[in-house]
Design a protein that fits this description.
- Chains A, B: InterPro entries: EF-hand-dom_pair (IPR011992), EF_Hand_1_Ca_BS (IPR018247), EF_hand_dom (IPR002048), FAD/NAD-bd_sf (IPR036188), FAD/NAD-binding_dom (IPR023753), NDH-2 (IPR045024), NDH2-like_C (IPR054585).
- Chains A, B: Keywords: Calcium, FAD, Flavoprotein, Membrane, Mitochondrion, Mitochondrion inner membrane, NAD, Oxidoreductase, Transit peptide.
- Chains A, B: Its EC number is 1.6.5.9.
- Chains A, B: Belongs to the NADH dehydrogenase family.
- The structure is a homodimer.
- Helix content of chain A is about 40%, strand content about 20%.
- Chain A is an alpha/beta fold and about 550 residues long.
- Chain A has a domain at about 185-330 and about 485-540: FAD/NAD(P)-binding domain.
- The first copy, chain A, has a six-stranded mixed sheet.
- In chain A, helix 13 (about 395-405) crosses helix 14 (about 415-430).
- Chain A starts with a helix and ends in a 7-residue tail after the last helix.
- Chains A and B meet through strand 4, helix 4, strand 5, helix 6 and helix 7 of A and strand 4, helix 4, strand 5, helix 6 and helix 7 of B.
């Protein structure tokens, strides 16, 4: 959260100082690795810099899409009196998403991790308006966002409306990535929203109750009690651990006759769970899960989900069907369609702009040398390029190009614009393998969803410059690896701290409690979360089916 | 709750002492005033009374339908080792329903008022089994109940199953009574279940958010912000008061631009709200509501609810349409179809039995004198008759017959069995006007839903006698008027205490807090409810749309 606040602080601060940033469209494009840069200018560079809003007859319209980590951090640090601010989001609250796995089993209540967005924006100086609606189309040409109000039988008409903007902040969050696996949307639970966590909770209890009905064969009982988690990342692992604790500590006692039939299975396509963590943590987690009877299936790829079973193939292409009672799909995040179409619309233009700047001899192709010269700019515009290079220990763009094409490339080979686009697209497709840890999912959330247009090429206005440089510096600072947590159940947490420090066990769990309590967005939610933990210590988790 | 426990204690105690009550079917028929009496005997009066279960090879099967007040109180006081107990209910928890109005606005959380039924039955000696399913048919001839498991895509087949019983306790609760008004089921919220309260809460926030959308005319905003409560009984009044507090204390601050457009309307068919309370309370409540701007429409009967508006007629038959954003329908309770059909199946037999006993001269008709002679028995079998007579200040059955037929009847007129049934049916239809107060809705819940067969006619076994006499005494004790509360909002409550004591104001509110805290079913829920109240005092109510 600190990172998140920090970077959006950057944007906010810049906006504070520059009440007339010359028609820069600030974009926080939310996607699963597809970062995008964009700006719009109507070439009024000559506009005088007016620092007091009194002389400005009308405030600029700033529209913020989304009330997740990005949108909320941005809003909290913005001077509301300088802009005419309109927030649009399908949820009228901010949710502390890192605690969602705790909500699935009632360790923390859903309501304790949400804060009404109106309470947050009420503290701003000026009036900040909020609309509970979903943006389904961004029209950058006419500077409009098309929105649809949440369904409601009492609303007249379709509930569609249009909001004009001068500046737009897109912070809509990502959606769960199903890799287009058939049946996932229909039969699996995701763990992205508060409602998802509530549904999972009800579904767990439903499965237990179903297994308790009379006249069921043991096979049917086992099927109902087979909980499957697809994806061995931090969210999946944390949920598996929470579920295991819930079933052994709380539920087992009151469902004595089915206790021994419950089975939790984690399906992971890679060779290890928690693969983005240090090997020691991975090994500890795998051993702990094995001891506790949590079945970890490594190297299995899910190919289909039906209403009865999950179909998966292992690396030897053997097909296995696993009947299930409940599946949670947690394999990472993907780009929302609205963002994707927006990116497609404007992304190409941007890459062309970089290409033209880099192509100093106007040859229509770039030498590797020419690319190296603009690599700094590329990394600023597409921060994922830098992250990618770093994560793969690559020396520079040559490695990147080799990686993209899969064969050795000579340094003097020239690139056409299509090849250049292909290399960047490759980075985009790979960037999802970067750490997306549970504890720092706020960091993650920002990192994978962050894209900014840097108008350093065309626009040299002082304001624009200050703004964008600050934002980019924030972004780079943001991704410093400041530590990750992976709660493993049984009051044990694995923590990966800077400087190759690894801490696993009960002490890390207490560190986790402290960090999560301190990172709450308000004193109210902090008090509620802490009192939920206390309630859990005293009374255990509730297992009512509501 | 004391009353509830008391009466079910009675049943439980009797069952404890008599481990072989001769095939008496104990029926706690749940209905909106339709009390029913029934028993089944297979004439094995000679069976020896066995007090120790060791000599009995197989325990009798006791099936309890429902986990509301009646079912839970019964279970809590039953010796689980004496019977083979199976509980069937669509909800795997007990809910403290008197706090439902508080849940609608987040004064108390839904989860704080529920206790898993498995936790309650775990404390019993023997094994008590529970199935989450709904009973849809009772077959008294074959002593079976037909059940349907809660819908679930992963359950094979239809989810139907059959449970055998020796003794059956029906405590399924009533359903909301719509008086067959068109559109009520489709467009109105009820306030009977925990889920209802949660839906109402979301709907209130939805209405506020809808009214905040851009491009709405003031008329449309007002429509979305028109909250209607149909029914001026204690539940409706308490909900109206809670809603008013929520909107003024918590929501108004963060929705400043629509604060003044909100309107709460209570529609009551009678001449006063809270008509079952003392006149001083009614007057105080009506004046308080008027001061606070809550619109109370007296003498209006709702004839239709469409998706846009409520249609109602006043006493002069003038038709009014009231556009609304949300309606809560709270006009009392009715009989569930499964109970109704069961009652129809066996009720007729029972009335015939009474008739035959009363008809000493076998004339086929009853003189009023003959009825007077068995009035005591009638009142035992149909407790609502006694309540009804008492509530109307009637001297005896003559008044009742007059009331039923609407004209004077001579004392020497004789009644055919059809006329006798008609008179009893009239009582059934009228009994819903008896007090059904919010505070003592546990009492209410029991009172209107309580029916027991009293096998004093046919079966004189010691066991049966002990059991039924105890139960009936409990029932009569239960209805002693031991006080009612009507929370009116703004930390004020009206209390009607025994001996014509009326207390209205803040002190009664504190009495209310104490009583409700003390009446919680477990220490866990008690702690949760109290901490919810404290949270509310400190942080206010949450207004997130979840």
């Amino acid at each position: 959260m600190r990172f998140a606040s920090f970077i959006f602080d950057g944007v906010s601060q810049a906006l504070k100082r520059n009440s007339m940033v010359p028609k820069v469209v600030v974009l926080v494009a939310v996607s699963g690795g597809g970062l995008i840069a964009y700006s719009e200018s109507q070439s009024d560079h000559g506009a005088s810099i007016v620092r007091s809003s009194e002389t400005e007859p009308k405030k600029k319209k700033l529209v913020v899409l989304g009330t997740g980590w990005a949108g909320t951090s941005f809003l909290k640090n913005l001077d509301g009196s300088l802009y005419d601010i309109q927030v649009v989001s399908p949820r009228n609250y901010f949710a502390f998403t890192p605690l969602l796995p705790s909500v699935t089993c009632g360790t923390v209540e859903a309501r304790s991790i949400v804060e009404p967005i109106r309470k947050i924006i009420k503290k701003k100086n000026g009036e900040v308006r909020f609309c509970e609606a979903e943006c389904f189309k961004i029209d950058p040409v006419n500077k409009k966002v098309h929105c649809q109000a949440n369904a409601g039988s009492n609303l007249n008409g379709t509930g569609e409306f249009v909001v004009d903007y001068d500046y737009l902040v897109i912070a809509m969050g990502a959606k769960a990535n199903t890799f287009n696996t058939p049946g996932v949307v229909e039969h699996c639970h995701f763990l992205k929203e508060v409602e998802d966590a509530q549904r999972i909770r009800r579904s767990v209890i439903d499965s237990l109750e179903k297994a308790n009905l009379p006249n069921l064969s043991e096979e049917e009982k086992r099927k109902n009690l087979q909980f499957v988690i697809v994806g061995g990342g931090p969210t999946g692992v944390e949920f598996a651990a929470e579920l295991h604790d819930f079933l052994t500590e709380d539920v087992g006692k009151i469902y004595p006759n089915i206790r021994d039939l419950v089975r939790i299975t984690v399906v992971e396509a890679g060779g290890h769970i928690l693969s983005m963590f240090d090997k020691r943590i991975t090994a500890f987690a795998e051993q702990k899960f094995q001891r506790e009877g949590i079945d970890v299936k490594l190297g299995y790829k899910v190919t289909k989900v039906s209403d009865k079973a999950i179909t998966m193939v292992d690396r030897a292409n053997t097909v296995t069907d696993l009947p299930y009672g409940m599946v949670v799909w947690s394999t990472g995040i993907g780009t929302r369609p609205v963002i994707r179409s927006f990116m497609e619309e404007i992304g190409q233009e941007d890459i062309s702009a970089i290409f033209n700047v880099a192509d100093k001899d106007n040859s229509g192709t770039l030498t590797v040398k020419e690319i190296q010269d603009v690599l700094g700019d590329i990394c600023e515009r597409y921060p994922q390029v830098q992250l990618y290079l770093k994560s793969r220990d690559m020396r520079g763009l040559v490695d990147l190009l080799n990686d993209a094409e899969g064969n050795e490339r000579k340094e003097n080979r020239e690139l056409s614009i299509e090849e250049f686009k292909k290399a960047l697209a490759h980075v985009d497709s790979q960037v999802k393998f970067l750490p997306a840890t549970a504890q720092v999912s706020f960091c993650t959330c920002i990192h994978v969803c962050f894209g900014l247009h840097v108008p350093t090429y065309e626009y040299t206005d002082e304001e624009a410059d200050t703004l964008t440089v600050m934002v980019l510096q924030c972004f780079r600072n943001m991704y410093k690896h400041l530590g990750s947590f992976a709660p493993l159940g049984g009051e044990q947490t694995a923590a990966e701290l800077p400087g190759d420090w690894i801490s696993i066990g009960h002490s890390s769990q207490w560190l986790w409690y402290s960090v999560y309590a301190s990172k709450q967005v308000s004193w109210r939610t902090r008090a509620l979360v802490i009192s939920d933990w206390m309630r859990r210590f005293i009374f255990g988790r509730d297992s009512s089916g509501i």
